[in-house]
Amino acid sequence: MSDYLPEVVILEILKRLPVKSLLRFRSISWTWNSLICDPSFISTHLQSSLSNNTPFLLIHYSETGKDNYSFHYDNDGFDELKQLQLPVFDCSSRTAVLDSCNGLICLILFHCEFFNFVIWNPSIQKYIFLPQLRISEDAELKFGFGFDLRTNDHKLLIVGVDEKDGSWIQPYLFSLNENCWKKVTAIPPTYTFGVVTGAIDIKVPFVNGAVHWLGYQTRNNDGFSNVILGFDFSAEEFMVINLPESLIGLWPPCLTIMKYGESSIAVCKSGELRELWVKKEYGVIESWTKVLALTRHIQSKRIPYVLGFRKNGEVLLEVDRGKMASLDFNCLKMEPHVVEGVEVATTLITIKVVISRA
Questions:
Q1: pLDDT tens digits, residue range 285-343?
Q2: Is 15 within the bounds of a domain?
Q3: How many structural domains compose the chain?
Q4: Is the torsion defined by CA of 147, 152, 154, 159 positive or negative?
Q5: Given strand 344-351, what is the order of strands in its sheet?
Q6: Which end of the chain, N or C, is surrounded by fewer C-beta atoms within 10 Å?
Q7: In this structure, is residue 144 part of a structural domain?
């Protein structure tokens, strides 16, 4: 290989190639395989892919009681790339997508008595099981999957509160580099979460090196004080982000948090008038802006459900059962999308195809 081109030149060429080509090139020789599988090259290719690749939208939908996943280009046509086939583990468990980060997908396996986590790289069809962790059965849990830039490490956070009194249970953090769980020693904030209804979504968005979820305190007059809770993967510390004044005292299940663009967050308020608030500048409390107020759809008489944001800044909505549309909230123009066979669209995840580790 070095008889024709310097290795540094070959590396520059390889890091610009798609994953499918790199997987084929690994069989050329032991040297090529070693080069492409080297952790430093994987990291370099990952950063190149994240800056250059077109992201895909992973749509999760139900059809006759079966979970399905499909990749769609985040383009004007919302074209489908392919159906995603999740790995089959065993017939006694149900598999669901927890979240995606840097091309890796974190799966959760629900068994009748416990659950497992799997980190899966669909680009190279490899996965690993995480070590099992015993957690209280009487806890309301949330899981956050993301990436620590400081240590170049994918991490998974588990936080939970006791269903009986709302007190925090011991949080745990998994490191892919170390392949182990450890107790989080940082002191959690004096807010609880998830015990108002017992059925709040377990998924939390990863933004700016931290995972985020909604928390609250109960006031003496039976009201609520809502905030956004976060955990920074590099500092391994909890944080509290204040909400807009009009959202602070609402019933907690009325609020849903999601990722906004590449570096901030948004909050959706449900009810007869569905409001969408975005934080234009992460970390600046004054930057909260209400960008959308939705009422019942004219044809379906149903309030559209906010699935998430597209790369161009438009909002992806579920306007009726299985019917999706993109909305430009600057001109309020709505563009419908057809996804064959969809009955209920439930999840939207942005993913990029990379040759990241499994």
A1: 899 999 888 776 555 567 788 888 888 888 888 877 667 888 887 777 888 776 655 54
A2: yes
A3: 1
A4: negative
A5: 80-84, 66-73, 56-63, 344-351
A6: N
A7: no
Which of 71-75, 181-185, 338-342, 353-357 comes out lowest in average pLDDT? Answer: 353-357
**Owner of token pair 């520059």:** 12
Instruction: Quick: pLDDT tens for 59-93.
Output: 766 666 666 777 777 777 777 666 777 777 776 66
The per-residue pLDDT for 74 is 77
What is the chain's Cα-based Rg? 21
What does the block give as tokens for 154?
């994918």
Between 7-14 and 39-52, two packed helices, what is the crossing angle to 10 degrees?
A: 40
User: Considering the domain boundaries, does residue 12 fall inside one?
Assistant: yes
**14 Cβ partners below 8 Å, 6+ apart?**
22, 25, 35, 36, 41, 45
Residue 23 lies in domain:
7-37
In whole angstroms, what is the distance from residue 121 CA to residue 142 CA? 22
> Is the residue at 322 inside a domain?
no
Residues in Cβ contact with 347 at an 8 Å cutoff, skipping those fewer than 6 apart: 58, 59, 60, 97, 203, 307
